[in-house]
Amino acid sequence: MKDDHTTTATTTPAVAAQTPTPAAATPVSTPAISVAKLVKRYGDMVALDHFDLDIRQGEIFGLLGPNGSGKTTAINCILALLSYDAGTIRVFGEPMTPTSYALKRRIGLVPQNVAVFNELTVEENIDYFCSLYVPKKADRAPLVEEAIEFAGLGEFRRFRPGKLSGGLLRRLNIACGVAHKPDLIFFDEPTVAVDPQSRNAILEGIERLNAAGATVVYTSHYMEEVERICDRILIMDHGRHLALGTADELKSMIDTGERITVETLDLDEATLAHVRDLGFVIEANWDGRELDVRCRRGDHNLVDLLGVLRAAGVNVGHLTSRPPTLNDVFLELTGKALRD
């Protein structure tokens, strides 16, 4: 969404005559985002099919779906970067249009593709993007310093982006998007291709922004991140709202229960067929070393499975049983796993 970031930045500076309106100006009961019956077509293709979305103020909201599901189109419509064919969009209770400059000043965008200027230093980049919303240097200076400190970029302030590691570039990208202290922040795949330490730092930073009052809309293909930080999650596909809830609520919506993995080297086809015939087994596969069994919900799945294996004289090594994951939710609701 690099182009989206640039478009937003270049449409607002002429009217950004003051710092963003604080979140307290909007009643907390008013949704941060309310989308109703949104339709977007590209010729004969329907990208958004009467799509609904309500995001509460103060939450971290996960917007998830496979590639081509309509996530980016929905976000671009919410940001008034795309026109749409039908439906309504309101941000903090007000209609969102291309000229809703007061609302745009309250929004921050951290795009998936790093969108900074290679000719500018870290500090100059943050100052530039902040200036699109806060024109006065005296007002901007403390915000820039705070963003540098927030992102842990103090010792790199004089560096140009080409000298930064991938993790530092991601942190710079975030600092540029949040320096003006927006009330609503969109994070689009902010941890792609970064090391675990940088990923953890980014997630902790998002949680701090949220704790300070920002509403966060988060998209990612990393399910463990979504489960860690998101209060509620919406799953969409083919431009439609499929399911909404907390991670635990989504898991309770599907038939899939635990997944059992058993190390074994001597499973035969007859025993594998017997396993597959068990009433609670959704799917069972053996790769010559490990038996992987996806189960429906039940109280005695592991005991019953081990009973079949022992009766057949199968030697069992290490075994694990884990509850359903968000990826399992995707497999059942969309028929596909999230992918890059």
UniProtKB/TrEMBL annotation:
One of its GO terms (molecular function) is ATP binding. SUPFAM superfamilies: P-loop containing nucleoside triphosphate hydrolases. Keywords: ATP-binding, Nucleotide-binding, Transport. Residues 7-25 have a biased composition (Low complexity). InterPro entries: AAA+_ATPase, ABC_transporter-like_ATP-bd, DrrA1/2-like_C, P-loop_NTPase. Pfam families: ABC_tran, DrrA1-3_C. This is ABC transporter ATP-binding protein. It comes from the Bacteria. Residues 33-263 form the ABC transporter domain. PANTHER family: LINEARMYCIN RESISTANCE ATP-BINDING PROTEIN LNRL (PTHR43582:SF2). Residues 1-25 are annotated as: Disordered.
